[in-house]
Every structure is written in structure tokens, then in C-alpha cells.
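Record passed on here:
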Amino acid sequence: MKRYYLLVLAILFTGAAWAQEPATVTPRGEYKWAVTAYYGKLTSDTLSDVLTFKADYDSDYKFWVLALTRKLKTVNPSLTIEAEGQIAKHTTGQDHWELNGLFALRWLRFPWDGFIDTTVAGGAGLSFATEVPPFEVETEGSSDKLLGYLMFELTVGPPSIPQWDLVSRIHHRSGAGKIFGSDVEGASNSITVGVKYRF
């Protein structure tokens, strides 16, 4: 019976923590700009496989990305709208450049932010490769220079250093339901790791 009461108290406490409004906006939400650098390996597995951690990554295909992000609007203390431009360099297996532009939503508040400050973001836009990526042709049968782009991001960092975060991103190019090229469905995916600096 004692365990039952402890469980009820834990549930009530957790619910109260979720519902409680922090006194101020998280410091990470106050910066207008951010630079993110990250690295990844490509996979031909589906976005669903990537999201469920079932994808296999090809060490023969690696790339680096530098991204510049601008906060456009604070919807409320928990949510912001961002615009981002990226430049990517494929360094192993293929050697072209990739330019990506997107709009994203970022969620800033989690109940554990006092211990480890966390944000999540998701965005969509366009991806332009300076040549048709050989990896996508090899694994999908065809591709195009211009495709749809999706990004999902998790950042974590200590509350005492709000300008710096560790970052993990899903980097996704595809035909976006055959909007870009009637023969292109999936294209390439990656889970990447890197760092973010806000200013």
C-alpha cells in the first residue's frame, strides 16, 4: 500500500512539473542567431528506419555541414520559428557540394531543463546538390540535383552555458512524395552529430 501512495505522489509531482510555467524564458530562447557544425554518414535505409534506430550507415559516404540559423519569431515562451541556410561538403565516396534552405519550429521547454537544457526542432525546405549524388543513384536507381529536405534536431547543454550545445540531427533528402522528379522517392538519410553556438 505504501508503494501505491508513493506511485500516486510521483505521478502528481511529474504532472505538476509539466504544468508549471517557468518564471522566465529559457536563456537559449533569447538568442537570435546560431551556427551549427555537424558530421554524418549516409544510409540508403528509409527515414522510418532512421527514426527507429534500425538504419545501417555506410562509412564510405561521409559529409560535413555548416548551418546558419536565424530566429524569425517567438510564438510563445516555448516555441520559436526559424529560418536556416546550410552548406554541406561530401568528402568520402562523393565530392560534390550541397546547399539546403529550410524553415523550422523549435520547442524550448522541458521539465528537466534545470539539469540539462534541451530543445527539439523540425524543419522542411529544399536541397540542391551541385551534381546528381552518386550515392542516391546507386542506392535508389535515380535522383535529381533539386530535392525536398527535412531536418529533425535534438540539442542538449548545461544551463550554465546557454550559448553552446551538443547536437544530433536527422539530415534527409528525398523526392517528397515524387514532387521532385517522378522517379525519385527516397534518396539519402543520416543521423549526424555536432555542436551549436548561439549569439
Remarks:
- Helices lie at 2-19, 47-51, 134-140.
- The CA atoms of residues 149 and 173 lie 5 Å apart.
